[in-house]
Amino acid sequence: MKVYLSIILAAILTNNFVLSKFLGICPFLGVSKQTKTASGMGIAVTFVMLLSTMVTYPINKYLLEGLGLEYLQTIVFILVIAALVQLVEIALKKYMPPLYNALGIYLPLITTNCAVLGVVVLNVEEGYSFGHSVANSFGAGVGFLLAMVMFSGVRERMESSDIPEKLKGLPIALVAASLTSMSFLGFTGIVEGMLG
Amino acid sequence: MAEKKNSLFKEFSKGLIDENPVLRLVLGTCPTLATSTSVESAIGMGLAASIVLICSNIVISALRKVIPSKVRIPAYIVVIASFVTVVQMLVSAFVPTLNEQLGVYLPLIVVNCIILGRAEAFAGKNSVLASAFDGLGMGVGFTTALFCMGFIRELLGTGTITISLLNNGNPLFPAIFGENPITIFILAPGGFFVFGMMIALANHIAQKKGKKIAELHSCKACPMFENCTSPDKEVKE
To answer: Which of A3, A5, B142, B185 could make an SS bond with B157 (beta carbons 3.0 to 4.6 A apart)?
Structure first.
């Protein structure tokens, strides 16, 4: 149990996907103008991360490793993720229209989101078991959601502040991201300290 | 003939300055921030992505009349992923240290928006030769931007520049801050900060030339633009 907790906490705080691993920067900068869209995107990414980890783990373990085809990982993973996202989109549209309206609109953007492929590849590289992989994906997704929501709050405040002419737009957003990520540096070592 | 040469040169040079993928189109931000901690890994990433970009541009452009437009995105992804796998195997065979430095970001070239973006915006519509030059220009532009960022971050963050092929892997010159470099620049916050400042500089130069400033993740540059249904999507031309 302790292992799961430490994997989840590490993925959320010390190894935050966006703020310390730089994965999923495009949606982090692009879809964070309002808290509502930011949280929608974050939840959709968490969902897809969990699902693609659950699907790619057996494929990798029993099909690719079983047949000695590990070098096909990159191709297989990205295709599985792309197909999965499409299927989820179709299923949500047909069976759960309210959920589709809330989250489905972000799904096409997620196919090429490096955070999803990133978490799958990292799970394989770390040699995690199925349970650990799922825990890591959950933590990564929640960390992504946390960073998105926090940053959208900062962005909303920035709309009404006085910014130097040359820094308006993207540069000041990146400076704000820099400060946000600096605050996450403060978590370094906290998980090891807490859970030994 | 001269005119043709001229237009090819234009495809090449636009990626370098006017449409620099990193500083003007704001694409491929993830690898830019993640691998610019040192000059060496920045150049390695730039070259690896450029090779994939040029090869996939050529193949996609050659196949542009065969691929049905409905399944073009998955088809592009397969082509790109194949070349990424080739590059991954070459790097781990011949430059294992680079493989270690780039880590997870090497397979993640697959989802680098520059490559899919160029496939969608250029290679799928233009001739093979023009696409090759477009890929070359974009690749050089990407590598240049990464090199600048890596240089600034490594110089401030460690006080010196170390390239394993030069000077027997020793630092190229004595550290400029003595024993106290500004380590934060090679950590995550420094990456965001340096990138922000470089965009500000690029915007400043662009404004002087009378061009638009780089937009915050401009939607038109996104490879998923046509499929996107996000409420934040910019519909205006």
So the answer is: B185
